[in-house]
Amino acid sequence: MIRFDAVTKRYPGGHEALSNASFEIASGEMVFLSGHSGAGKSTLLKLIAAIERPTAGSVTVNCQNVGKMRRAAVPYLRRNIGLIFQDHKLLFDRSVMQNVLLPLQIAGFSRHEAAGRARAALDKVGLLKREKANPITLSGGEQQRLCIARAIVSRPSLVLADEPTGNLDADYARDIMDMFKAFNQVGVTLVIASHNEDAIRAYGSRVIHLEHGILLS
Ligand SMILES: Nc1ncnc2c1ncn2[C@@H]1O[C@H](COP(=O)(O)OP(=O)(O)OP(=O)(O)O)[C@@H](O)[C@H]1O
Asked: What is the ipTM of this complex?
C-alpha cells in the first residue's frame, strides 16, 4: 500500500529530515514510527499524505506516485486517508458535531447517515456529551480526541497519526490505542508516530525506527 524508494527530504535551508529511506508497508499492517524528537517521523507521515514532497526518490501510495501528484489530485488521495496531526486544524467557528460532520458532508452522505456516523465517532472518543460545544472550549486532550473522531468518521482505509496520544491521560491513551487496534482488525492500515517506546512495545506491532532522518529498521 505504501512504498518509499530511496526517499530524501531536505527542507528549505538545507536540513535533511529524511535520508535515502526505503521501506514498504502492506495493506492491513499496523506500524509504529519511533525515534527522538526531530528524527523525521512527522516528515515521513507528511510525505505519505502529500503534505510534503520528496527532494529525491519516490513515494507510492496505492500504486500512485504521490510525490509527483498534481495538486488537484491530492484531495482525492486524502479522502482515503484519516489524518491525525498535532496541529489539529479544527474549525473554531463550528461546533464539535459540525467538525465531525464536515468530512461526511463533503463525501456526500445523507444527513441521517452522516448524523449517525458522527455520533458514533464522538461516542468512541468520549465526546458525545460535548457535541454542541465550540472546540475552543475543549482542553488540549479533548481537541486531540475530536481530531481523531474527525479522522476516522469516514472510515478511511489508511490512518496516519502523529503522536495521537501525546496529550492524553493514560486511560484515554489506552482507549485510543485499543480503538486503533480494532480498526486494524477490520483491515485498516495504520501508521502511528510515537515517542512512547513502552506503548509501542506493548502492542507488539512492527516498528520503523528513525534516527536523525535515517531508517534503522
Ligand atoms: N517545514 C520545515 N522546515 C524546515 N525544517 C523542518 C520543517 N519541518 C521539520 N523540519 C526539521 O526536520 C527535522 C525532522 O522534523 P520532524 O518534525 O519530521 O521530526 P519528528 O521526529 O516528527 O519530531 P517530533 O517528535 O518532535 O515531532 C527536524 O530537525 C525539524 O526541525
From this structure: 0.96
